[in-house]
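From the pipeline queue, job 12 of 40. The input is one protein chain; the requested action is below.

Action: predict structure.
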Amino acid sequence: MPEIITQKPKQDYFELFLRQSGLRFTSIEYGTSPDVIARADIAIGVEITNYYLEQGPNPESEYAQRIARQSAIERARRFYLKNNGRRVEFSFEFDRTRPIQDSNSVVNGLVALAQRTETLEPGFISESELDYRDLVPGLQYVSVGAQECDNPQWRDYSPYPTPPVSLKMLADIVSDKEGRAALYRPCDVYWLLFIVDLSDANLDDELKRGRINLIWSKVFQRIIIYNVRTGDIIANATLVSRATSLR
């Protein structure tokens, strides 16, 4: 899988969840299978899954293409700056209907594009100024920052659709995780913590109505959705907001 440029470790997500939920444990151990063992009166194994990171295995899916774009842009940025490029920021937008097939050619094209903008005025770069579509197939918008800075960022602003988090999606993930339960370290009970960390991700109507309790699991005592952006937590049939306890 291509490098993911912006990814919080699962430990960070769990600590955010603890602060939001108000849950308290006497000890917390981070590891794998499950990701967390939280101890109080009993040992609770918490498996963490992430909506953004674990959806869309198809290499031409928007999920995979978003990662491919971010990785190519970051590689190009580092190469350009390492070779004495201007320390200005760039913004790009790609045509989602033309998936990246060769990431190395995209990296090389972005570097060449950045070099050719050095004689142009900052701001939006029109195709009449620079035919960047030949350099980077699928690229349809380029903007260059006016001010140099210590750590200039290159950003992908390509729009992408975010399907709602659905009951069926969650049920499929629960089933997949249950298939790996034989590998889990021993605990008294297990929870599945489903992280949503996309600004435009929404719950479908069934989940909004609290129907998460329709999902039955032979492994997980609790199935929990935590929306990082809104602070909402859904556990079983209860919507819990802010610092309300899940117990």
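Job complete. The radius of gyration is 22 Å.
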